[in-house]
Amino acid sequence: MALNISAGDHVLDLCAAPGAKLCMILDLLGDSGSVTGVDVARHRLAACRTMLQKYSLGDRCRLFVADGVTFSLIPAGSCSDSKPCESDLTEKVDIFKEWTSRRTWKERKKARKSGPPQLVSRSQPPELIYYGRHSGVVGLTKEDLYKIVSDREIMSSGYNKVLVDAECTHDGSVKHIQKFEHWGWKTLQRRVLDAERTDNLHVLQLSLLTNGFRLLKVGGSLVYSTCSLTVAQNEDVIEQFLKENASAELQEIDAARSWPCKGGRVEKTWRFDPLTSQTSGLFVAKFTKLAI
Ligand SMILES: C[S@@+](CC[C@H](N)C(=O)[O-])C[C@H]1O[C@@H](n2cnc3c(N)ncnc32)[C@H](O)[C@@H]1O
Fold first, then answer.
1. Model confidence, pTM
2. 248 and 289 in a common domain
3. Where would I find the SAM-dependent MTase RsmB/NOP-type domain in this sequence (predicted)?
4. Domain that holds residue 149
5. Of these four, 15, 153, 171, 288, which has the most CB atoms within 10 Å of its CB?
C-alpha cells in the first residue's frame, strides 16, 4: 500500500522471500508491468516460487537468488537495445523459452533435505530460478538478460518501484516470537540475539537500501521497512542514507493517515507497535529519487 502500485509498474523486491509482499504486489499489478524478486536464501526463494505456482500468480514475475547488495539487473526488456528483433529470434537458439521446472518435485524435495540452507555470496552472479510467461524474460538471450547497464541508464530504465523489506532482528514480530514454541527456545540466541549477526545488520540494511535506490528510476518510489522496533535499524539507517544520497527525498505515505500507527523519530516515517496498532512491530519509510 505504501508503494502505491500502479498499472504498468516494474517493481523490484530486493528481500523477497518467502514472498507474502511479492504476492500482494503481483495481485495489485494485475495484467501489466512486472515484478523482480531477489533473495540471498535459495531455500526461502524456492518456497516463494512454490507459492507463485500454487496460486498462479507468477505470470509477470521473475525470481533471482542473488545478494541484494550487488544485484544490478534492470527490468527485462526495458533497456532500449536489449530486446532482440524478430529476425534475431529465428537465428538465436539460446533464447529463454517458456519456463519449465527442470527438476521434479521429488528431486527438489530430496535436494532440500540434503544439506543446510545455503546463502549465495556477494560475488556469485544472480541465478534465475523462475520466470513467468509475461515477465519479459521469454525471448531474451542470456546476454540480454544479464546485461549490466550504467547508473546513468538506470535513471531512465530502472524500476518504477522498489521494496527493501530488509533483513532485521525481527524483535517487533510477536508472531515470530511465538514460532519459538515450535523451533525451541534454545535457538532464540542464535536466531535473534546473536551479537555478531545483530552488530552488522545496520550495515547490511544501509547497503540494501543504497543498492535498491540505485536501481530506481528518476521519479520512482522506494519503501524501506523492517519488523524491528530499534532506532538503530530504522531511523539511524535512513538518516545515514539521506546523508549519503543527495537525490533521495523522504515522501509522505498518503495511506498512513488512516493507519493505526504513529510517526517515527524522523518526519514522514511510521511505526507500528502492539500497543498503538495492535499489530507486530513495523517501521516504514518511503523515498523518491530526484533528478539531480
Ligand atoms: C524480512 S524478510 C523479507 C520478507 C518478505 N519481504 C515477505 O514479505 O515475505 C528478509 C529477507 O531478506 C533476505 N536477505 C538477507 N540478506 C540479504 C541480502 N544480502 N540480499 C537479499 N536478501 C537478503 C532474507 O533471506 C529474508 O528472506
1. 0.90
2. yes
3. 1-290
4. 1-156
5. 15
